[in-house]
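Sample intake sheet
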Amino acid sequence: MDQRPSLSIFIALIALVALPFSQMQAAESRTPFPILAWWSIPPDQATPERYRELSEAGFTVSLTRSPNLAGVQKALDAARGTHVTIFAWCPELDFDSGGDPAQAVAALKGHPALAGYHVRDEPDAGMFPRIAEWMKRLKSLDPDHEAYVNLFPIYASPQQLGSANYRDYVSGFLRAVPVRFLSFDHYPVGAGGRFDHGVYENLEIAAASAREAGIPLWTFARLTSWADKPVPTLAHLRLQAYSGLAYGAQCLQYFTYWTPPPNPGEDFHDAPISSDGKRTQTYEIVKSMNRELQDRWAGFAGFRVDCVAHCGPHLPTAAVAYRPIPPVAAIDAGSSDIIVSHLSRGREHRLLVVNRDVDKPCTLSVSFAAGANTSVLHEDGSTTPASASPTVTITPGGAAMWSW
C-alpha cells in the first residue's frame, strides 16, 4: 500500500498510535493525526513535488476544487505515494448540479489517494434534505469513502443558518444528514491578534452534539489573512489546535493552505503558499505546529473526552467551571485562564491543560491524590513522575499533559 489508510479509519476512532513526525513517511502501518488543508494545491499546480511539499508541512489531507473530473484524477495521481489523500470536488460531483455522480464516483473510488467527496461548505438548514439524499447516493456508489460537509460557525446569522439559533442548526443537521463526523469552522483570532473566546460556546455546542451522535468532531484553525485578521503566530495556532483537542477533536483543518484570489472585502494574503506559488513565513510556522501535533498525537489518538471545563477569572459563555476529578486533587493556575480536559481510552487516562493566553506563558501546579501513579507526558512522548514536576510552565496558547 502506498497511501495512508482512508479517513474512514479515523472516523471509526480506531486507537492507532502515531509515530514522531520525522518518521511518518517511513511508516506505512501507522496513522498520523489527520490534518486537512483547505483551499489546497490548485489544479494547475497538481504535481508530485507540490504534494510532497504539502506532506512535508505535516498535512495528511487535501481539499480543493477542480474544474472537471480530469483535474481530480490528475491531482490524485500527483498525490499518490506522498502520504496525502484528497477530498474530491468537481462539477460532476456537485450536488447542486442535479446530475448523477455515478460516472465520476466509478472513475475515482478505486484510487488509493482518495479520502472522499466534498459535498458542501456552510449549508443552510433548507439544504439539509437534499444533502442527505446526495450523501446516500454517494454511499450507495462508494461505501468505502466518506462525504464531507462543513457547517457554519456560531456567529453566522439566523438568516445564514436557516434556523432560529445555532443549537437548532447543528441538531437539525445531525438529525437529517447521515454524516460520519461533525465539522465546523470558527476563526477566533481577530484584529491585533485578539482571541475571541466566544469560540468556546461554539465548541461546547458542537462537541456535545458530536458526542450525543457518537461521531468525531473536526475543528479549524486559520492560516490565511484578510481584512483585520493578522498573520498567525505559533501561539495563535496552538490555542486553536489545543482548544479543539481539549474538546475531543479528531481532525484539525486549516483555512487555507494556498492563498485564494481576492474577493470583495477579503484581500487574502500570507497563507503558507502565496498566490504565485511561493512559500511564505506562514509555511514554516504551520510546519512547526504540525510537527508538534504529530509528535503528541499518541497522547490523544482514540481518547474520548470525559470532562472539559475552564479555570480562571474569565469563564467563557456556556463553559463549565472546573472541579477536580480524582486522582486530580487541585489545579492552581493563579490568575491565568486555562482549559482542563480529562480524556480516557480504556484504562489509560490523560489530563490536558491548555493556556488560553496567546501572549503570556502560564505557570500552574497540579497536585494528585496520595498514591496516584501519575506522570507528566512530554512533547517527545517521554514521561517523568508528576511528583518530580509539581509546577509546569505552559507556553502562550500551548498545552501540558499528564497520564495515569
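Comment: The longest helix spans residues 281-296. The CA atoms of residues 197 and 316 lie 6 Å apart.
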